[in-house]
């Protein structure tokens, strides 16, 4: 096959391919082995789906509804290009008895539009706005897999991991912020077997590129801004985006300094920074001043001031985004923005306290909310795979055999006793 991301080669009999894929799917779900004619991209997705403990007989859950959905959609960057999506794809979807769908970067469907009868049919499997169709929740599917691998993908019939979805075929392409490159979500076309044609994949890819071009025109470039953007969650070295659009990867100590200074716009004295950064009281102010001098050279002139040490420009960070959302009770939005612990390898006392406070606050909110999809996302993430309390909450919300098995193993490993349901 010349393009492994296209579902069917020219001349392939769709009916025969469906039968072969169903046999392969049954073999995989029974024995965990992949056989022809499963494409490598689908085989990899099946393995990820199984690793996330997705059930082939599962179904989608609606995570956002009514006012929550409306508020989330209104603030989402892709709302600005929905008129473009409708203009380019609306008629094609309606006339072809297909659906136009748009999801966020976590596979949550935001809009599902198109042919009325097809929309009703899709609604029976909760392919509806507000439903989570991430690969970790719904297995292999075009919108979920497109955001998982960050590239256009086509999923044909029994290539879908969940059996209920196997009558459908879909093609999706990711959409990125044109300035930062950040993944915003994906645009998808869903319908019957006819969408397995290579043209449908090229079509959604072209629509995604058009949307990125439109976003570039609608949003002013970062060069017109005066602030910095800091990414510090789930990474040991912070990534700093300057107003000119330059990306700077910082060392660990510089990452810690920017985290602390961004949280104290009023500034910190040298003695305060020493206490925040170093457990060893023998570290001298000279060492700290040398670090700050190097940081000043890295970030450029006019950013770092002294007496006290402070940032002369505003800084927005992914840490602050999660804290704001969590503080306002927007648990789903906070969990979506949380990409991992704050500078996980940092041993700076103040950074460790912030990291622990954020993690504890978010996991407590997730446990209190009791949403099985949010709990599953946390439990299957590297930072949550041994989190006994979260696994207990997940077992209470979704007592699937795989969940109960993992919980029993954690109980035994951590000496917490057995868990009864």
From TrEMBL:
Span of domain OmpR/PhoB-type: 245-311
Transmembrane parts of this sequence: none
Stored InterPro entries: GAF, GAF-like_dom_sf, OmpR/PhoB-type_DNA-bd
Gene3D superfamilies recorded: 3.30.450.40
Originating species: Streptomyces xanthii
Protein name, entry field: GAF domain-containing protein
GO MF entries: DNA binding
Residues making up the signal peptide according to the UniProt record: none
GO biological processes: phosphorelay signal transduction system; regulation of DNA-templated transcription
């Amino acid at each position: 096959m010349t393009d492994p991301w296209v579902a069917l080669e020219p001349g392939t009999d769709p009916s025969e391919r469906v039968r072969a894929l169903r046999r392969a799917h049954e073999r995989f779900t029974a024995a965990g082995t992949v056989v022809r004619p499963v494409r490598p991209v689908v085989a990899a997705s099946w393995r990820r789906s199984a690793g996330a403990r997705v059930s082939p007989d599962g179904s989608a859950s609606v995570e956002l509804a009514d006012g929550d959905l409306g508020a989330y959609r209104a603030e989402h960057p892709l709302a600005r290009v929905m008129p473009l999506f409708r203009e380019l794809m609306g008629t094609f979807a309606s006339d072809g008895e297909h659906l136009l769908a748009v999801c966020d970067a976590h596979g949550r469907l935001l809009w599902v539009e198109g042919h009325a009868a097809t929309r009703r049919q899709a609604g029976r499997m909760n392919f509806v706005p507000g439903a989570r169709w991430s690969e970790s929740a719904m297995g292999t599917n075009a919108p979920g897999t497109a955001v998982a691998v960050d590239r256009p993908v086509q999923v044909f019939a029994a290539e879908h991991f969940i059996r209920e979805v196997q009558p459908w075929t879909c093609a999706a392409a990711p959409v990125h912020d044109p300035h930062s490159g950040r993944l915003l979500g994906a645009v998808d076309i869903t319908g019957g077997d006819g969408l397995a044609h290579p043209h449908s994949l090229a079509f959604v890819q072209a629509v995604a590129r058009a949307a990125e071009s439109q976003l570039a025109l609608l949003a002013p470039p970062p060069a017109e801004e005066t602030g910095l953007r800091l990414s510090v969650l789930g990474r040991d070295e912070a990534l700093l985006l300057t107003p000119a659009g330059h990306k700077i990867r910082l060392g660990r100590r510089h990452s810690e300094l920017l985290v602390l200074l961004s949280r104290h716009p009023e500034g910190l004295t040298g003695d305060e920074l020493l206490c925040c950064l170093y457990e060893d009281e023998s570290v001298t102010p000279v060492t700290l001043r040398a670090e700050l001098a190097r940081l000043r050279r890295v970030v450029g002139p006019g950013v770092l001031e002294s007496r006290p040490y402070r940032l002369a420009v505003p800084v927005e960070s992914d840490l602050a985004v999660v804290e704001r959302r969590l503080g306002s009770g927007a648990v789903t939005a906070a969990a979506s923005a949380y990409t991992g612990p704050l500078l996980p390898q940092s041993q700076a006392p103040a950074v460790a306290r912030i990291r622990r406070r954020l993690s504890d606050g978010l996991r407590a909110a997730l446990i209190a909310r009791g949403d099985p999809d949010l709990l599953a996302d946390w439990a299957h993430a590297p930072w949550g795979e041994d989190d006994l309390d979260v696994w207990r909450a997940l077992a209470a919300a979704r007592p699937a055999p795989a969940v109960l098995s993992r919980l029993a193993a954690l109980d035994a490993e951590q000496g917490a006793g057995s868990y009864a349901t």
